[in-house]
Design a protein that fits this description.
Pfam family, one: Pol_BBD
Organism: Trifolium subterraneum
Oligomer: single chain
Keywords: Metal-binding, Zinc, Zinc-finger
Distance between the termini: 110 Å
Protein name: CCHC-type domain-containing protein
Largest sheet: 6 strands, mixed
InterPro entries: PolX-like_BBD, Znf_CCHC, Znf_CCHC_sf
C-alpha cells in the first residue's frame, strides 16, 4: 500500500487563459496542502540575530514556499513565466498573475459592464435544451461573481423564467402559481423544466409517429393509373386510384365517411345507376321496364343521367354506326351500345336536339 501511494501524484490544473477558473482551482489545491498562508502572507523571514527556533521556522516556511512554487511552475506555461520579472516567492508569482490577467479596477469595471449586458439580453434559442441554457446563464453569473458582483439566486431564477421559449409559457405560469419565486432554487427550477421538456419531446414524437401511420394508411392502395372506371379488387368506382379501406372514403353526395357516392343511402332506391366498364369514360344511366309501342312515347326528362339511350334506330336523323360499347345497369343487367346519333324532340312547340346512344332490347327513353 505504501508503494502505491508513493507514486500517486496530484494533478495540477493548467492555466488556459481563464484566470478566474484557474485561480479557483489553484486555490483549492494549495489550501488542501495547507500551504495557502504562503500566498496570503508570504514567506516567513528570520530577523537579525534570530534564535534557533526563529531560524528553523524561517527555513520551514521557505521549504513550504518552494512546494507552492513547484505547483505554480507546473501550472503556468514557460512563455508566461518569462514575462514575470519578480518570481522569488510563490506570492510574487501569484500577485503577478492576478495583475496581468484580472486587470485593474477600471478594466474589471468595463468587463463587468459587458457581462451585465450579456446577462440581460440572454434568451433561450430554439436549438438549445434546458440544460444548455442553464449552463450558459450560470456561466455568465459566475463570471460576474468573479468580477466582484454576486447575483442573488432569485435574480437568476427570474431571468431564466422570463427568457424561456414560448412553448414553456404554461410551465412558467404553473411554476409561479405553485411556488414562491423568492425561495425557489435554481436546481429545483432546472429539474422541473427538464421534466416538462422530456414530456413535450415524447408528445411530439408520438404525434409524428401517428401522422406517419395515417400517411402510410392513406397512401396504401393508390395506383399509378389515372383512368376512370371500376377497381378490379372490390368493384367500387374510382378515379385512377386503388382503393383503400372505406373508413377514409368521403361520399361526394352526403360528405360522410365510410361509403362511396354510388353507395350513398340518400339516393332514392339506390338502384337507378349504371357503370361503364371501360377505363376512359363513365356512362351513368337509368332503366325502366315500361314498354310503349307508339311513336308518341313517354320520355323521362331531367333524370340526371349524363348519357341517354333508346332502342329505335330509325328515329335518328344522323347516326354513327361505328360507336360500340357496353354498359352495366343498376339491376346488374348489361346492354350493348350499337351506335350514337342525334334525335329531335318537339315539346310544347320547342324543338330539342339530343345526342343519344342506340341500345339493344331497350324500349324507354331517358333524357
Amino acid at each position: 500500500m505504501a508503494e502505491e501511494t508513493k507514486f500517486l501524484h496530484t494533478p495540477v490544473p493548467k492555466f488556459d487563459g481563464y484566470y478566474e477558473h484557474w485561480a479557483m482551482l489553484m486555490e483549492n489545491l494549495i489550501q488542501s496542502k495547507e500551504l495557502w498562508s504562503l500566498i496570503e502572507a508570504g514567506v516567513t523571514v528570520a530577523p537579525a540575530n534570530a534564535t534557533v527556533e526563529q531560524q528553523q521556522a524561517a527555513d520551514a516556511s521557505k521549504l513550504k514556499d518552494l512546494k507552492v512554487k513547484n505547483y505554480l511552475f507546473q501550472s503556468i506555461d514557460r512563455s508566461i513565466l518569462e514575462t514575470i520579472l519578480v518570481r522569488e516567492t510563490s506570492k510574487d508569482i501569484w500577485d503577478a498573475m492576478k495583475r496581468k490577467y484580472q486587470g485593474s479596477t477600471k478594466v474589471k469595471r468595463a468587463h463587468l459592464q459587458a457581462l451585465r449586458r450579456e446577462f440581460e439580453v440572454l434568451a433561450m434559442k430554439e436549438s438549445e435544451s434546458v440544460n444548455d441554457y442553464f449552463a450558459k446563464t450560470l456561466a455568465i453569473a459566475n463570471k460576474m461573481s468573479a468580477q466582484g458582483e454576486t447575483l442573488q439566486e432569485v435574480a437568476v431564477v427570474e431571468k431564466i423564467l422570463r427568457s424561456l421559449l414560448a412553448k414553456f409559457n404554461y410551465v412558467v405560469c404553473s411554476i409561479k402559481e405553485a411556488n414562491d419565486i423568492n425561495t425557489l432554487s435554481i436546481d429545483g427550477l432546472q429539474s422541473s423544466l427538464i421534466v416538462q421538456e422530456q414530456r413535450m419531446k415524447a408528445q411530439a414524437e408520438g404525434s409524428e409517429e401517428q401522422a406517419l401511420k395515417v400517411s402510410n394508411s392513406t397512401s396504401v392502395g393508390r395506383g399509378s393509373g389515372r383512368g376512370r372506371g371500376r377497381n378490379s379488387t372490390n368493384g367500387a368506382r374510382g378515379r385512377g386510384r386503388g382503393r383503400q379501406g372505406k373508413e377514409l372514403v368521403e361520399c361526394f353526395k352526403c360528405h360522410k365517411l365510410g361509403h362511396y357516392q354510388n353507395e350513398c343511402p340518400e339516393w332514392e332506391g339506390n338502384a337507378h345507376y349504371a357503370s361503364y366498364n371501360d377505363d376512359e369514360e363513365m356512362l351513368l344511366m337509368a332503366k325502366t321496364d315500361q314498354v310503349l309501342n307508339s311513336m308518341n312515347e313517354t320520355w323521362y326528362l331531367d333524370s340526371g343521367c349524363s348519357n341517354h339511350m333508346i332502342g329505335h334506330k330509325e328515329w335518328f336523323f344522323n347516326f354513327d354506326n361505328d360507336n360500340r360499347d357496353s354498359v352495366k345497369l343498376g339491376d346488374d343487367s348489361r346492354m350493348t351500345v350499337m351506335g350514337k346519333g342525334s334525335v329531335k324532340l318537339k315539346i310544347n312547340n320547342v324543338v330539342l336536339l339530343l345526342h343519344i346512344f342506340v341500345g339493344t332490347k331497350y324500349e324507354t327513353k331517358i333524357s
